[in-house]
Write a structure and sequence with these properties.
heterodimer, A: MetI-like fold, B: conserved putative lor/sdh protein from methanococcus maripaludis s2 fold, Elongation Factor Tu (Ef-tu), domain 3, 4 domains
Chain lengths: 279, 674
């Protein structure tokens, strides 16, 4: 009985959480007249209250067709987002994983203060680093280009922090035994560290995918050339006229995130849990 | 599970890739492809073209008298003729008939004109007679008035004398009756007056006889002309009779001299009838009047002869001016004879039969005789009355009826009052009759309306003479009409056997004057063509001759259609023949403009001109070309180009000249190189 009540509460909470997605999917199938009627009070100031239905009254694929066939800009931005996210994630794999391994498994002077610095930097919001980032990127001539977005993200501290937890969790005995069997540091990292820390790596990648897929501040600040803009800047001006397009583009944007989530679902939980455990 | 998710993800990405290409392809289909051109320096040339017909410069009309029968025509339209060549001929028989008819008409008109002149003369004569008669009537009225007034005044005077005598006598002496004395005296006076009247009539008759004999003598001497001038009969008489002089001539002249003279000819001095007696005068200085009781004869002693046509006013220059009803003009007889009569003939103009002349004089003066006769009767009656009064008194006296002096005085006073009244009545009556006579004179002298019949007849005659002259000239030329100049016949308005029209018979164009081309162009071309512009003329015939370097001679608005201009170009001698169709072309080169664009790049919207220029904009898809509308001011344009005012459009801006799709401001376009 108690469990049932709890379940009901959870279902209710889940429904609240899922509601925006349902809202999105329903809106994408509405035609412009219906959208105008329902969203008019908010977007056009026509008075009354916004109403919504779980199913569209006059379902149409018109918005999908328009977005997919008549809006080449969307695809430019979609592929820009793919490129940025892929670049960032690849860079993090290349840089972040060894960094986390090093911090977790090697003893060297100032290891602790360095790690603390990592934590502090991780805590800093983007707004704090924005000016310094800009000056550095400007000096490196990386402004208004994709590397200008990718490089700072590659050296992000958050994935290092996540993976550090996983690498630290590998028992010392396994590494000892590998060394005894004659494995060098690289062998240990490659054949012991990576497989055993794969959960952390994947969860870090999933979390970062979601973060960089939705990147807004950095491209807005560092990219002047609109051709380089990611998908998150596609709808700078959501008006009633473009409401249908906005819903559809949101749905399409959502799709890769869902795929990534499904792929990394197991590791994601471990990763989130790992980041919550204090040392 | 994981594999399927990965597969689906890969499928999703592949689908996105596919849609990327599809959307790009769709976009490239919808985008307009345009060609552009930059504004350039250039000129806007305006070419005015028009087609017209070559025609001669000068035309001359040949005409003849209207209504002639055309016998034969010797030329055709378009034929060249030399000066003197026979053009056409009219029928001589009909021409001669017309001449005869014209002459007869003129003769008829002459006769009518003469008749009219004669009747006008007769009318003038009648008018003169009626004027004369009115003047005569006036004289008679004046004379009668004077006579009556004089008589009334005398009566009054006598009554007053009687009263005076009575007062002087004081007491009535016994045996000497003053009343009887007075009555006796009255009887004697009346008798004397009666005798005077008889005498006067006799004198009058003598004077008439004398005048008749004198007139006859004059007639025989052939002095009619002089007599003719003396237009009116005059009778002046004066003397003890106290009759005022009457000047007929003056009265007549008064008619022409003015009405006011007649309106106040007789004035009575009511204040002093006792001392002054009567005054019958309109002479301004009344002091110079004679009074009836002075016993002095009213004698005009002017020396002026009987001048009747002098027209000058003869004013009496003596203290004893004549008593005349006239003011200004006093023509008196030159004698102071106690009785004078002057009678002469008045009708002028024609020699008269002596017997008729005498009759007329006598008739005209008959009224004087009649009047004298009337006077005689009156005097006779008065004498009888006075006698009767004396007898009556004596009878009364004999009857022993004593009348006191007081009663007698009262009686005499009553008599004076009655006489006074009679006198005033006489004056009023005389004034009335004189005024009506004066009006009659005025009426007779009233202006007659103008009569221009004679002059009009003369003008008509001149016109007819002119026509006759022309007809005769044509007859002299045997009815043949020849070319006056070397020319081409352009129009013939004649038909053999028909009558010639009332206007141009033939139209000739002067060969010597050269040819011109007149073309019609639209009115809105006016600003692009003007006198002096260069022009090229091309003949629209097989030879297609082209004449260059010609000059526009004139540009005028067409007389029939104000929306068309007639452009004339003088052609060189012997270039194109009259009647040839030709095209004129005149190009006017404008100044150099900095911004010239092809006309198809210019758009108009509600009278505002604009162009579309390319502008680059960076979008998500990269640098794209979009269309921007630019409002411009057109300085000049022709069929191919337009000149814009610099400022709005810079020289490096790319103006869209053509597009394969409809474009508007904001459209994305693709540039294609020409």
């Amino acid at each position: 009985m108690k469990n049932k009540l709890l379940l009901l509460l959870l279902i209710l909470l889940a429904a609240i959480c899922c509601y925006p997605v349902i809202f999105l999917l329903t809106g994408a199938l509405m035609d412009s007249a219906e959208l105008k009627e329902r969203l008019g009070p908010v977007l056009a100031g026509s008075g009354g209250f916004v109403g919504w239905a779980l199913l569209p009254q006059y379902p149409t694929m018109q918005n999908y067709v328009e977005l997919l066939l008549d809006t080449p800009e969307f695809f430019v931005m979609f592929w820009n987002s793919v490129k940025l996210t892929a670049g960032v994630l690849a860079g993090q794999l290349l840089i972040g994983v060894p960094a986390a391994w090093g911090l977790a498994r090697f003893e060297f002077p100032f290891r602790k203060p360095l790690y603390t610095l990592y934590i502090i930097l991780m805590m800093m919001p983007f707004q704090v680093r924005m000016l310094s980032d800009y000056l550095v990127l400007d000096a490196l001539k990386l402004l208004d280009s994709h590397p200008g977005i990718i490089l700072p993200a590659v050296f992000s501290t958050f994935p290092v922090f996540i993976m550090y937890r996983f690498f630290r969790g590998i028992p010392e005995a396994i590494i000892e035994s590998a060394k005894l069997d004659g494995a060098g540091s690289l062998h240990v990292f490659w054949f012991i560290g990576l497989p055993l820390g794969a959960g952390g790596i994947v969860s870090a990648l999933v979390l970062n995918f979601l973060e960089y897929w939705n990147l807004i501040e950095q491209p807005l600040t560092f990219l002047k050339d609109k051709t380089l803009w990611p998908l998150s800047l596609f709808l700078p001006d959501v008006g009633l006229e473009k409401a249908g397009i906005a819903f559809v583009s949101s749905v399409v944007t959502l799709v890769p995130a869902v795929f990534v989530f499904l792929l990394g679902q197991d590791y994601l939980e471990q990763g989130i849990a790992a980041s919550a455990v204090k040392e | 599970m994981k594999k399927r998710v990965v597969g689906a993800f890969a499928g999703f990405l592949a689908a996105m890739l596919l849609f990327t290409f599809l959307s790009r392809a769709a976009d490239s289909l919808s985008i307009a492809r345009v060609t552009v051109r930059k504004a350039e320096r250039g000129k806007i040339n305006h070419t005015v073209t028009g087609t017209g017909t070559v025609m001669q410069n000068r035309e001359q009309a040949v005409s003849t008298l209207a209504g002639q029968t055309v016998k034969s025509i010797y030329v055709e339209e378009g034929q060249q003729v030399k000066k003197g060549d026979l053009l056409f001929e009219v029928d001589l028989i009909s021409l001669k008939e017309q001449i005869l008819k014209q002459k007869q008409e003129m003769k008829k008109a002459d006769l009518q004109s003469q008749d009219k002149a004669s009747s006008r003369a007769a009318q003038a004569q009648r008018n003169a007679i009626s004027q004369g008669r009115a003047a005569e009537d006036y004289g008679v009225a004046a004379s009668k008035g004077n006579t009556a007034v004089s008589r009334a005044a005398a009566e009054l005077q006598k009554a007053k004398k009687k009263l005076k005598a009575l007062e002087n006598s004081g007491e009535i002496p016994a045996g000497n009756d003053p009343v009887e004395e007075v009555l006796r005296q009255t009887c004697e006076d009346k008798k004397k007056e009666y005798e005077e009247a008889v005498e006067y009539k006799k004198e009058l008759e003598d004077a008439i006889d004398k005048e008749v004999s004198r007139a006859l003598a004059d007639l025989s001497k052939g002095q009619e002309t002089a007599r003719l001038m003396a237009a009116e009969p005059e009778i002046h008489f004066s003397g003890e009779t106290n009759f005022a002089d009457i000047d007929l001539q003056a009265a007549e002249n008064a008619g022409s001299a003015g009405v006011p003279d007649i309106a106040a000819p007789i004035v009575s001095d009511a204040e002093g009838p006792v001392t002054q007696g009567t005054e019958v005068s309109v002479v301004p200085d009344t002091e110079e009047m004679t009074t009836p009781d002075t016993g002095q004869p009213v004698t005009p002693d002017t020396d002026q002869p009987v001048t009747q046509d002098t027209g000058a006013a003869a004013t009496p220059d003596t203290d004893e001016g004549p008593v005349t009803p006239d003011t200004g003009r006093t023509d008196t007889s030159g004698t102071d004879d106690d009785s004078e009569q002057i009678i002469d003939g008045e009708m002028g103009g024609q020699t008269q039969d002596p017997w008729l002349l005498e009759q007329r004089i006598r008739q005209e003066n008959q009224y004087l005789l009649d009047e004298a006769q009337v006077q005689i009767h009156i005097k006779e009656q008065e004498k009888a009355d006075a006698d009767a009064a004396l007898v009556s008194y004596q009878q009364e006296k004999a009857a022993g009826e004593q009348t006191s002096v007081e009663e007698m005085r009262a009686q005499i006073k009553e008599e004076i009052a009655a006489k006074q009244q009679a006198y005033e009545d006489a004056v009023t009556a005389a004034n009335d009759s004189l005024r009506s006579a004066g009006r009659a004179v005025e009426d007779a002298n009233a202006l007659q309306g103008t009569d221009s019949t004679g002059e009009i007849d003369a003008i008509t005659r001149e016109q007819e003479e002119l026509v006759l002259e022309k007809l005769e000239t044509l007859l002299e030329a045997d009815g043949k009409v020849t070319a006056p100049i070397d020319a081409t016949i352009t129009k013939i308005n004649l038909m053999t056997g028909e009558k010639t029209p009332d206007g141009t018979a033939m139209l000739l164009s002067d060969t010597a004057a050269g040819n011109k081309l007149v073309v019609q162009v639209d009115e809105n071309q006016e600003k692009y063509i003007a006198k002096g512009d260069d022009a090229t003329v091309k003949a629209n015939n097989k030879k297609a001759e082209t004449l260059e370097n010609l000059t526009v001679d004139s540009v005028r608005t067409n007389e029939e259609n104000a929306e068309i201009l007639d452009v004339t170009v003088q052609l060189p001698a012997n270039s194109l023949e009259a009647g040839t169709s030709a095209t004129l072309e005149s190009t006017r080169t404008s100044e150099t403009y900095d911004r010239c664009i092809p006309i198809q790049a210019l758009y108009e919207d509600n009278g505002k001109y604009y162009v579309y220029v390319l502008s680059e904009s960076s979008t998500v898809l990269g640098t794209e070309l979009t269309v921007t509308r630019l409002d411009v001011t057109v300085l000049d344009k022709n069929e191919t180009s337009a000149a814009l005012q610099p400022g709005a459009l810079s020289s490096d801006q790319q103006v869209i000249v053509s597009s394969d799709k409809a474009i508007s401001a904001g459209s994305r376009v693709r540039l294609i190189e020409e």
